[in-house]
Amino acid sequence: MESNLIWIPLLPFLGFVVNGLFGKKFGPKFVSWVGALAPISAFFVAVGVFLHLSRAQGDGHAGALHQHVFDWIKVGDFTASFGLLADNLTSVMCLVILGVGSLIHLYSIDYMRGDKGYYRFFAYLNLFTAFMLLLVLGDNLLLMFVGWEGVGLCSYLLIGFWFEDKANARAGQKAFIVNRIGDFGMLLAIFLCQRYFGTIDTRAVGEACAQGLGGDTLLWGLDLATWISLLFFVGATGKSAQIPLYVWLPDAMAGPTPVSALIHAATMVTSGVYLCCRMMPVFEASPITLNVIAAVGACTALLAALIALSQNDIKKVLAYSTVSQLGYMFFAIGMGAFGAAFFHVVTHAFFKALLFLGSGSVIHAMHHEQDMRKMGGLKKQLPFTYVCYMVGTLAIAGVPLFAGFFSKDEILFAGFEQAFGEHPSSFAAVFWGVSVLTAGLTAFYMLRSVAMTFWGESRVDPKLLPSVREPGRWIGFALFFLALLAMFGGFLGVPEFLPIPFVADNVLGEFTHLAHGHGDLTEAQLGALHSREWISLLISVFVGLSGLGIAFYLYGPGKALLAKLVVTSPSGRRLRSWSENKFYVDEFYEFFVKGFHAASHLTWALIDQLLIDKILVEGTAAFTKGTGHMFRRMQSGFIPAYLLTFGWGALVLIIMLLLKDAGH
Amino acid sequence: MFSLTACLYLSAFLFSVGIYGVLARRNILVILMSLELMLNAVNLALVAFGRAHAVAGAAGEHRGQVFAIMVLAVAAAEAAIGLSLLLLIWRKWRTIDVRDLCRMNG
Lengths: 664, 106
Known about the structure:
Number of domains of chain B: 1
Oligomer: heterodimer
Largest interface: A-B, 13 and 13 residues
Radius of gyration of chain B: 18 Å
CATH topology of chain B: Helix Hairpins
Structural class of chain A: mainly alpha
Radius of gyration of chain A: 30 Å
Helix content of chain A: over 70%
Largest sheet of chain B: none
CATH architecture of chain B: Orthogonal Bundle
Helix content of chain B: over 70%
Distance between the termini of chain A: 88 Å
Number of domains of chain A: 3
Number of helices of chain B: 3
Shape of chain B: elongated
Order of helices and strands of chain B: HHH
């Protein structure tokens, strides 16, 4: 089993190589086969790994599979091996990546049909999958970093997939540059690990922190574990789109919709959360970092939800919703509930991929129209897509028994427990309140997008309307499976106080070892805990449903209340304009970017254009050309001239020799 | 017989005639002949030095003469190659004027 691990990232990588090299020659049919079979076959390998691990878990000797492929770097006492590590957490993550990834690959067959970059698209998508798996499976931080950068690269390539349009290319660059800022933190964290722990092996670093080795004060009164975990978190804010580095994700919607679903919703953006779960002991060793993460996560969740309220582009709504949900995950981590965070990663992958693919189906049917103001009433034309999109909406809104309900409830409860549990904390209470508010907003803006897209009067261009119909069968296939997952995926993490028949409690949390059990509690404590859980559950369900209710009331069939409420009252209008303009964060960043832009323009003009291009490159060429021009006259081809030169030369030499002798 | 100085004067005169011929004449055949003249001027000098400085019975008594014969051999080879090239040039371009043979100019 151990030697099979390498196949998980290798198969998609082979898909990339084959499609990249031969895809253009062999045509789209070949590309589809290779492109889709690569992740599917890797999925089966991952299933094998997962079964092996769960059998071991059942036998009571839970362990991890480790494959040492080769020694990668060996310099002095620094070693980085190319080794893959699959523990329970990793195997679940692989299943999510490859399961959702395979469905999205299949979906893309229909979605990208006829595109002139068809083979390029599948090659990039396969490469992304390979790097994502490398990031997840890497047994040391440096190898993880390779995957980390690789997915960033693929994200850049795929955001700018239609690079003929300059806006798309710019969005790709923005994503890349913003991510680099985060990667800088990630690199510093790796350096610190190597410097102070002498290893970059993920397990060894975790053990070192668990033993309290990170307790020494390093700088500014903060200890080593705090610095390392904070720097990891800086990396995570880049990749997982948190304040202050979230600005790239909404722009990343310039890429094709399957890309948004796979990279910018289901997998890559959750890698920051995965990193936190992977390095859990490091984060647990630092309460300061956890508080920072909780604050950043909750604020991101709220800010993104507020922006999502007024977006008119269907994908932009989903993008901000993704940022907001990622904020949730980090809030959970900040509350110490790593299991809840990872659970939300999994369910979010299901329902957000579903929502994105649903929106993709709409966009495809509408011939690449994304503005919801030009949709409306599509329920009639796209009944299947409507049902699937609705399932995703209910799941993200936290309607009971859908996937998002369980994971979101677990997160909110983690906050609730910190805020009002046995050791009440007002800090946690504030951010718990923020995330509850966000839950309501989430339900609201998602139902708003449903209403604007599928309900009410049709605002579709009448010329376009007859051609709007359900897209191909692969799109339907992927939507169907993801809808099932979004409906039932939540049963992976049923809390123990909810009596749901036939479903074991908290399967995922126990399998991934991220959840802490309640084994050491007395009967009375457990009772109190359960009543708190019920209160938290009721609050989150109430808030979610009221969000849905308000949206239904404002946007539902035949309602024009919205106009009265928002457009007429001045404070409503101000809020709306702030939200529509994304709180001017981009403009604020632009202020800094302008400085860098001017500086880099100067260096470009001075150093690149003038020094390198004009003086060094063209100067060398001109010098060679000029001297060549001068000396070519000597090459007359007239033999006596050569001989004359030769004779004069000989004469000079003889005279020199004579003079030298005379000198003695 | 002749003094060394006289021989060297003759040699220098012949060499100068050769150089003049090589540089000033346009006919390749004449240039080759002039070249021959230069070589033989040198031979003359070698033999003259050999005669004047050799010690009878010592090792290397005939060094100058041997060197001259060596030069003769090389000159013969050079003449053979030079003339065959000349022949080929004539066949190809119907001219042996060096002013016409300057296609390799830069």
